[in-house]
Amino acid sequence: MIRLRCRVQPAIQLCFAVFLLAGCAETTMTPTFRATRGLSRPDRVLVFDFAVTPEEAGAERRSGVAPQTEEDVRVGKALTRALSANLVAELRSRGIEADRAGDGAAPGDRTASIRGRFLRSDGGGNGTTTVGFALRDGQVRTRVQLFQGTGLKMQLVGEGETVTPSGLKPGAAGDATVDADAKRTAQVLAERIAGYYREEGWIK
Q1: Is 130 within the bounds of a domain?
Q2: Could you tell me which of 184, 179, 53, 64 has the C-alpha nearest to residue 120?
Q3: Residue 158's pLDDT is what?
Protein backbone atom coordinates (compact mmCIF):
# COMPACT_ATOMS: atom_id res chain seq x y z
CA MET A 1 0.00 0.00 0.00
CA ILE A 2 1.23 3.46 -0.86
CA ARG A 3 1.75 5.60 2.22
CA LEU A 4 1.96 9.35 1.98
CA ARG A 5 3.68 11.59 4.48
CA CYS A 6 1.58 14.72 4.85
CA ARG A 7 1.35 17.59 7.29
CA VAL A 8 -1.85 16.94 9.23
CA GLN A 9 -4.28 19.86 9.44
CA PRO A 10 -6.51 20.26 12.51
CA ALA A 11 -9.85 20.58 10.73
CA ILE A 12 -9.56 17.20 9.02
CA GLN A 13 -7.28 15.10 11.17
CA LEU A 14 -10.04 14.33 13.63
CA CYS A 15 -12.20 12.78 10.91
CA PHE A 16 -9.49 10.90 9.11
CA ALA A 17 -7.83 9.38 12.15
CA VAL A 18 -11.11 8.13 13.56
CA PHE A 19 -12.45 6.43 10.48
CA LEU A 20 -9.16 4.58 10.08
CA LEU A 21 -9.47 2.92 13.48
CA ALA A 22 -10.38 -0.76 13.63
CA GLY A 23 -13.82 -1.46 12.19
CA CYS A 24 -16.42 -4.13 12.86
CA ALA A 25 -15.92 -7.85 12.32
CA GLU A 26 -17.01 -7.66 8.69
CA THR A 27 -15.43 -4.43 7.54
CA THR A 28 -11.78 -3.76 8.41
CA MET A 29 -9.69 -0.62 8.15
CA THR A 30 -5.94 -0.08 8.00
CA PRO A 31 -4.82 2.79 10.28
CA THR A 32 -2.06 5.18 9.25
CA PHE A 33 -1.86 7.65 12.14
CA ARG A 34 -3.35 8.31 15.58
CA ALA A 35 -6.00 10.89 16.40
CA THR A 36 -4.97 14.20 17.98
CA ARG A 37 -7.19 15.66 20.71
CA GLY A 38 -8.36 19.23 21.23
CA LEU A 39 -8.96 20.14 17.58
CA SER A 40 -11.55 22.49 16.09
CA ARG A 41 -14.75 20.92 14.81
CA PRO A 42 -15.06 20.91 10.99
CA ASP A 43 -17.99 22.91 9.62
CA ARG A 44 -19.21 19.84 7.68
CA VAL A 45 -18.11 16.78 5.74
CA LEU A 46 -18.37 16.52 1.95
CA VAL A 47 -18.56 13.03 0.45
CA PHE A 48 -17.32 12.51 -3.10
CA ASP A 49 -18.19 9.47 -5.23
CA PHE A 50 -15.24 7.07 -5.22
CA ALA A 51 -13.40 6.38 -8.49
CA VAL A 52 -14.39 3.09 -10.12
CA THR A 53 -11.81 3.01 -12.95
CA PRO A 54 -8.15 4.03 -13.21
CA GLU A 55 -9.16 6.89 -15.53
CA GLU A 56 -11.56 8.33 -12.94
CA ALA A 57 -8.79 8.17 -10.33
CA GLY A 58 -6.24 9.81 -12.62
CA ALA A 59 -4.15 6.63 -12.54
CA GLU A 60 -2.52 4.67 -15.35
CA ARG A 61 -3.69 1.19 -16.20
CA ARG A 62 -1.03 -1.33 -15.15
CA SER A 63 0.33 -3.61 -17.83
CA GLY A 64 -0.25 -7.32 -17.37
CA VAL A 65 -3.43 -6.79 -15.31
CA ALA A 66 -6.72 -8.10 -16.67
CA PRO A 67 -8.97 -5.21 -17.74
CA GLN A 68 -12.23 -4.47 -15.98
CA THR A 69 -15.34 -5.87 -17.61
CA GLU A 70 -18.35 -3.77 -18.53
CA GLU A 71 -20.17 -5.41 -15.62
CA ASP A 72 -17.35 -4.46 -13.23
CA VAL A 73 -17.70 -0.81 -14.20
CA ARG A 74 -21.51 -0.82 -14.17
CA VAL A 75 -21.75 -2.43 -10.74
CA GLY A 76 -18.89 -0.29 -9.44
CA LYS A 77 -20.71 2.89 -10.40
CA ALA A 78 -23.85 1.69 -8.63
CA LEU A 79 -21.73 0.85 -5.60
CA THR A 80 -20.03 4.24 -5.42
CA ARG A 81 -23.37 6.06 -5.62
CA ALA A 82 -24.76 3.86 -2.86
CA LEU A 83 -21.67 4.37 -0.70
CA SER A 84 -21.90 8.16 -0.97
CA ALA A 85 -25.61 8.23 -0.19
CA ASN A 86 -25.27 5.83 2.75
CA LEU A 87 -22.28 7.63 4.21
CA VAL A 88 -24.05 10.99 4.13
CA ALA A 89 -27.14 9.46 5.74
CA GLU A 90 -25.12 7.65 8.43
CA LEU A 91 -23.18 10.78 9.35
CA ARG A 92 -26.34 12.89 9.55
CA SER A 93 -28.08 10.29 11.70
CA ARG A 94 -25.26 10.70 14.20
CA GLY A 95 -25.57 14.49 14.35
CA ILE A 96 -22.76 15.32 11.93
CA GLU A 97 -23.48 17.75 9.11
CA ALA A 98 -22.66 16.09 5.81
CA ASP A 99 -23.49 16.50 2.12
CA ARG A 100 -22.67 14.83 -1.13
CA ALA A 101 -20.15 16.87 -3.10
CA GLY A 102 -21.92 19.49 -5.18
CA ASP A 103 -24.89 19.81 -2.82
CA GLY A 104 -25.36 22.84 -0.57
CA ALA A 105 -22.91 25.69 -0.04
CA ALA A 106 -19.41 25.75 -1.47
CA PRO A 107 -16.66 24.20 0.71
CA GLY A 108 -14.52 26.45 2.90
CA ASP A 109 -11.15 26.26 4.61
CA ARG A 110 -12.54 24.13 7.46
CA THR A 111 -14.55 21.78 5.27
CA ALA A 112 -13.63 18.09 5.35
CA SER A 113 -13.65 16.19 2.06
CA ILE A 114 -13.83 12.40 1.80
CA ARG A 115 -12.55 11.04 -1.51
CA GLY A 116 -11.40 7.63 -2.58
CA ARG A 117 -11.08 4.89 -5.15
CA PHE A 118 -11.96 1.23 -5.36
CA LEU A 119 -9.16 -1.32 -5.44
CA ARG A 120 -8.98 -4.82 -6.94
CA SER A 121 -6.51 -7.66 -6.97
CA ASP A 122 -3.85 -7.40 -9.64
CA GLY A 123 -4.18 -11.14 -10.22
CA GLY A 124 -0.60 -11.93 -9.33
CA GLY A 125 -1.49 -13.93 -6.23
CA ASN A 126 0.79 -11.84 -3.99
CA GLY A 127 -1.89 -9.68 -2.38
CA THR A 128 -1.07 -6.50 -4.28
CA THR A 129 -3.81 -4.32 -5.71
CA THR A 130 -4.51 -2.00 -8.60
CA VAL A 131 -7.08 0.76 -9.07
CA GLY A 132 -10.60 -0.27 -10.03
CA PHE A 133 -13.53 -2.41 -8.93
CA ALA A 134 -13.79 -6.12 -9.83
CA LEU A 135 -16.65 -8.48 -9.02
CA ARG A 136 -14.42 -11.55 -8.99
CA ASP A 137 -12.55 -10.40 -5.87
CA GLY A 138 -15.37 -11.28 -3.45
CA GLN A 139 -14.79 -8.09 -1.47
CA VAL A 140 -15.26 -4.35 -1.66
CA ARG A 141 -11.92 -2.67 -1.06
CA THR A 142 -11.29 1.05 -1.06
CA ARG A 143 -8.47 3.50 -0.57
CA VAL A 144 -9.86 6.55 1.22
CA GLN A 145 -8.28 10.00 1.22
CA LEU A 146 -9.07 13.02 3.37
CA PHE A 147 -8.51 16.58 2.21
CA GLN A 148 -8.84 19.94 3.86
CA GLY A 149 -9.87 23.24 2.31
CA THR A 150 -10.72 24.04 -1.29
CA GLY A 151 -9.12 25.16 -4.52
CA LEU A 152 -5.41 25.92 -4.32
CA LYS A 153 -5.58 25.55 -0.53
CA MET A 154 -6.79 21.95 -0.70
CA GLN A 155 -4.24 19.63 0.86
CA LEU A 156 -4.09 15.87 1.24
CA VAL A 157 -3.76 15.03 4.92
CA GLY A 158 -3.94 11.26 5.02
CA GLU A 159 -4.90 7.94 3.47
CA GLY A 160 -6.18 4.52 4.48
CA GLU A 161 -7.89 1.37 3.20
CA THR A 162 -11.13 -0.48 3.97
CA VAL A 163 -12.08 -4.06 3.15
CA THR A 164 -15.65 -5.41 3.23
CA PRO A 165 -16.38 -9.08 2.39
CA SER A 166 -18.97 -9.16 -0.40
CA GLY A 167 -21.48 -11.48 -1.98
CA LEU A 168 -21.18 -9.67 -5.30
CA LYS A 169 -20.25 -12.03 -8.12
CA PRO A 170 -20.11 -11.82 -11.92
CA GLY A 171 -23.59 -12.34 -13.32
CA ALA A 172 -25.22 -12.10 -9.88
CA ALA A 173 -24.76 -8.51 -8.73
CA GLY A 174 -28.17 -7.49 -7.41
CA ASP A 175 -29.11 -4.04 -6.16
CA ALA A 176 -29.78 -5.35 -2.65
CA THR A 177 -26.25 -6.76 -2.34
CA VAL A 178 -24.73 -3.55 -3.69
CA ASP A 179 -26.59 -1.45 -1.13
CA ALA A 180 -25.79 -3.86 1.71
CA ASP A 181 -22.05 -3.71 0.98
CA ALA A 182 -22.16 0.08 0.70
CA LYS A 183 -24.12 0.40 3.94
CA ARG A 184 -21.73 -1.80 5.94
CA THR A 185 -18.76 0.25 4.80
CA ALA A 186 -20.58 3.53 5.43
CA GLN A 187 -21.71 2.49 8.92
CA VAL A 188 -18.16 1.76 10.04
CA LEU A 189 -16.83 5.01 8.63
CA ALA A 190 -19.64 7.07 10.17
CA GLU A 191 -19.56 5.41 13.59
CA ARG A 192 -15.81 5.86 13.99
CA ILE A 193 -16.14 9.54 13.11
CA ALA A 194 -19.09 9.91 15.48
CA GLY A 195 -17.16 8.20 18.27
CA TYR A 196 -14.45 10.79 18.02
CA TYR A 197 -17.02 13.61 17.95
CA ARG A 198 -18.50 12.24 21.19
CA GLU A 199 -15.10 12.08 22.87
CA GLU A 200 -14.49 15.71 21.94
CA GLY A 201 -17.91 16.70 23.30
CA TRP A 202 -19.27 17.91 19.98
CA ILE A 203 -22.22 15.50 19.90
CA LYS A 204 -23.92 13.35 22.54
Answers
A1: yes
A2: 53
A3: 60
